[in-house]
Design a protein that fits this description.
Blueprint lengths: L1 E2 L2 E5 L4 H8 L11 H8 L4 E8 L2 E11 L8 E5 L13 H18 L3 E5 L9 H7 L4 E2 L9 E6 L4 H7 L2 H11 L3 E6 L2 H18 L7 H10 L7 E7 L2 E11 L2 E9 L8 H15 L4 E3 L9 H8 L4 E4 L4 E3 L3 H14 L4 H7 L13
Parallel strand pairs: 5-6, 12-13
Antiparallel strand pairs: 1-2, 2-3, 3-4, 4-5, 6-15, 7-15, 8-13, 8-14, 9-10, 10-11, 11-12
């Protein structure tokens, strides 16, 4: 395909090709990796679109495709995309509009799907207005679910001692206490480290019994599937040789993302969760990452997690609302059914439909 000097390539990727492309972008993240897509949604349900100009890659997007059998409609779902900022460059807003047009042409007009895009862009940030203008042919979801899109984003560019000074005083006191507790840290990204984390997470769930627990088995598969350049980072805190706290972080592009945290009963008094967060911040900064995304907050539904993350003194930001477009009434029925399922109206319906929208990989922290 060729449109106004741009070349659009669709679904002619291998896993290694896609890994190479994703690694070229500053705004890359785990949700656009091939491994995440395969583990989370299945390879046959993925679609990949690449925008080029003069054979130079400008933007890429991995989408989940849902087409119910014997039904002339479906959904294309793009999470935290498209990727538009190449490494070593500032955000190229002039690339967003042709990419938005390419996505609309391929998935809305050609495939007749309901296209829903969750951009990795924040309300009030520089360039947000221009970003939205580039998607002018899309409608924006109402703002009523803003809490589901909130996060704390920590700027890692100040010196490490300055980042520590900015911590909330009570949070810093807990960190100081943890550093005096004779804790041992294990770091890695392999099956052994993840098994230790999984045991901690299961113990935390048995204690707290929170709704919608994360599928840690799925995370284990992801840990094995990711290539070396995209491996998640796992830190385990041991007290007297026994694992008591754990944290999982994904770091691609210029940002690290807090995926999961866990504390067992023995770890409640060690304050190891504070130490692990600080060690992740230190590692991200030392390895050249610019931001640390704390992975979602909801002060009303989960005030404990909110206050814990707020203590790191990141900026409280809200991602712009999802962008949607559809020209097929049957596909509109698909998204309506998906949203009903996501609202929790029946696990049997959810299993039948096979949809798992949203952030099941959201961080949970004791």
């Amino acid at each position: 395909m060729n449109n106004a000097g741009y070349q659009i390539h669709v679904d002619n990727m291998t896993s290694s090709n896609w890994d190479d492309l994703v690694n070229r972008f500053e705004d890359a993240h785990i949700y656009q990796t091939w491994s995440y897509g395969v583990v989370r949604w299945g390879q046959r349900n993925l679609s990949h679109l690449v925008l080029k100009q003069n054979e130079k890659v400008l933007s890429v997007a991995q989408l989940r495709i849902i087409r119910p059998r014997f039904f002339k409609g479906g959904i294309a779902y793009l999470r935290w995309g498209p990727l538009c900022q190449l490494r070593g460059q500032e955000p190229q807003l002039e690339v967003v509009r042709p990419m938005a047009l390419a996505l609309h042409e391929e998935y809305v007009q050609k495939r007749r799907l309901f296209l829903r895009i969750l951009p990795n862009a924040f309300e009030g940030s520089p360039g947000t207005g221009s970003f939205k203008d580039s998607f002018s042919q899309f409608r924006q979801e109402p703002q009523g679910t803003a809490n589901a899109r909130r996060t704390f984003l920590l700027d890692l560019t100040p010196p490490l001692d300055e980042l520590r000074k900015r911590l909330d005083q009570k949070w810093r006191n807990q960190l100081n206490g943890a550093e005096r507790n004779d804790l041992t840290i294990i770091e890695g990204s392999g099956a052994g480290e993840f098994q230790m984390f999984s045991d901690l997470y299961q113990a935390m769930w048995r204690r707290k019994k929170f709704d919608n627990p994360v599928d840690v088995h799925e995370f284990g598969l992801l840990c094995e599937a990711l290539p070396p350049s995209q491996k998640i980072r796992i830190l385990i805190c041991l007290h007297k040789g026994v694992p008591v706290n754990g944290i999982v972080c994904a770091a691609l592009g210029h940002t690290g993302i807090y995926l999961l945290g866990a504390t067992n009963d023995a770890g409640l008094n060690t304050k190891g969760a504070y130490l692990l967060q600080w060690l992740i911040i230190k590692w991200l900064k030392e390895n050249g990452y610019r931001y640390y995304d704390l992975g979602g907050i909801n002060p009303e539904a989960n005030p404990g997690v909110y206050h814990f993350k707020r203590g790191l003194a990141g900026a409280d930001l809200t991602r712009i609302a999802p962008l949607e477009s559809c020209q097929n009434p049957l596909s509109s029925l698909c998204i309506l059914a998906a949203d009903i399922v996501h609202a929790g109206l029946g696990s049997s319906i959810r299993n039948w439909w096979g949809l798992r929208f949203g952030s099941s990989m959201a961080a949970k922290q004791s």
